[in-house]
Design goal:
321 residues; single chain; 13 helices
Length: 321
């Protein structure tokens, strides 16, 4: 069975209600994401027209992935998980155990073969100054925020071009996670006939991906102000197109990264820099005018039209160490 865009919308409503909600919020707030980083990293992205995806095992995100596993495990054998599995078995007998075994079989790969890039939702109110907490966390002495048009990340497609996927992060403790599991169980019960019409294999793959993204995109509630989305690749599970691996040294640690070119492809428009980049915000730093001049030249070199209008110096009064 081939899925239509209408099917994707309905499947998202049933199995990914939080993604549905956050996509609406991103669209209504201007349809943009932002990548807070250092001026050095931003320079590399623009000059090479490329962004890097890092393995979660080499990042702080490894602990966050473990938090997601903990939330899932605590919910799965409790009443919300029991209700969820019962709903699946109502659709197709024995499906719950089949999905559990399938997920557990892929678990080692999910842990060691996941590459991510993290971004935040960008709000209109942040256009001139950015977000103070993000400058503190990621800007170091000279921070830069790359504000990006979100269309390429939230687009709907029945034929993925890159096999790289985006998902909003949810900020949950195990109790809140269990509430979300119960909600999806209720959605399944309400849509049993439609779910049966999809066929067993599509439902199995959909629920597997739901569990995978729930694990990879659940963080402690204390991080909620980051409003994070994750761009996710799992090359063993889904071979990635139009990207390549390379060894890079990051903060003194050699590691394999996945390098993705910022260019358009048939069926995937909006990834090239002129369309992707909405603006650059220069964060609090010692030489903001010098940094602005450097990024103006970089934007002109990569063909961004009216480059001067896209660079803003933040007026946020953050003291530098």
């Amino acid at each position: 069975m081939s899925l239509s865009l209408e099917d994707l919308d309905r499947i998202t409503h049933i199995f990914f209600p939080y993604t549905e909600q956050k996509t609406r919020e991103v669209t209504s707030s201007g349809g943009r994401f932002v990548y807070y980083t250092t001026a050095e990293t931003a320079t590399s992205i623009l000059r090479n027209k490329q962004f890097w995806m890092r393995n979660t095992a080499a990042m702080n995100d490894y602990l966050e992935v473990e938090h997601g596993f903990e939330c899932l495990n605590k919910s799965y054998d409790a009443s919300p998980g029991i209700a969820f599995n019962a709903a699946l078995n109502t659709c197709f007998p024995g499906l719950a155990d089949e999905i559990k075994d399938f997920f557990n079989g892929w678990l080692p790969s999910i842990r060691r073969d996941t590459y991510i890039t993290c971004m935040s939702e960008h709000l209109r109110a942040e256009d001139q100054h950015g977000r103070l907490s993000m400058w503190r966390a990621y800007g170091e002495r000279t921070g830069v925020a790359l504000v990006l048009n979100a269309a390429v990340m939230i687009r709907k497609s029945t034929e993925p071009v890159l096999n790289i996927f985006s998902s909003p992060v949810d900020y949950l403790n195990p109790e809140d996670f269990a509430v979300k599991v119960e909600k999806i169980a209720n959605n399944i019960v309400a849509e049993v006939d439609y779910i049966k019409s999809l066929g067993r294999e599509i439902v199995k793959q959909t629920v597997f991906q739901m569990l995978r993204f729930a694990v990879l995109c659940t963080k402690h509630p204390g991080f909620h102000e980051e409003k994070e989305w994750r761009v996710i690749a799992s090359p063993v599970m889904h071979p990635v197109q139009h990207a390549n691996f390379a060894v890079e040294v990051i903060r003194g640690t050699p590691q394999e990264v996945l390098r993705v070119d910022l260019k358009n492809h048939p069926g995937l428009e909006g990834l090239a820099l002129p369309e992707l980049l909405d603006r650059i915000i220069i964060g609090p730093c010692q030489f903001p005018d010098m940094v602005r001049a450097a990024f103006l030249r970089l934007l002109q070199e990569v063909g961004v039209p009216e480059a001067g209008k896209k660079i803003i110096i933040s007026d946020i009064p953050l003291r530098q160490p």
